[in-house]
Amino acid sequence: MARRSKRPKVKSKFTVKETKLSTIFGASLGVISMVTVLLMLYLTFARGGEATLSYGFAGILASVFSVTGLILSILCINDHYQPHALGWLGLVMNGIAALSMAGILYLGML
Fold first, then answer.
1. What distance lies between CA 7 and its chain's CA centroid?
2. pTM (two decimals)
3. How many domains does one find in the chain?
């Protein structure tokens, strides 16, 4: 009787999901913009509601970061060959930061 050879079974991978660098940039820009907005709001509150020019510049920079992070996160979610968790995290954080900056700018014009 012939013996079967004991070869290791090879598992096939049909998809390789790797996190791209743009996904990491999108999520990190979300973190940076959220921290900047929260820090700007806290420091303005600590000064009695009086915002300086540097706080305004930080807010504009945070809004630019959040729009850039939104674009990168949307591109990540539309790509089917990479995991989506980090992309959704970046999308939510950048969206919250962009909406909060839009709200602050709207309330400042009243």
1. 45
2. 0.76
3. 1
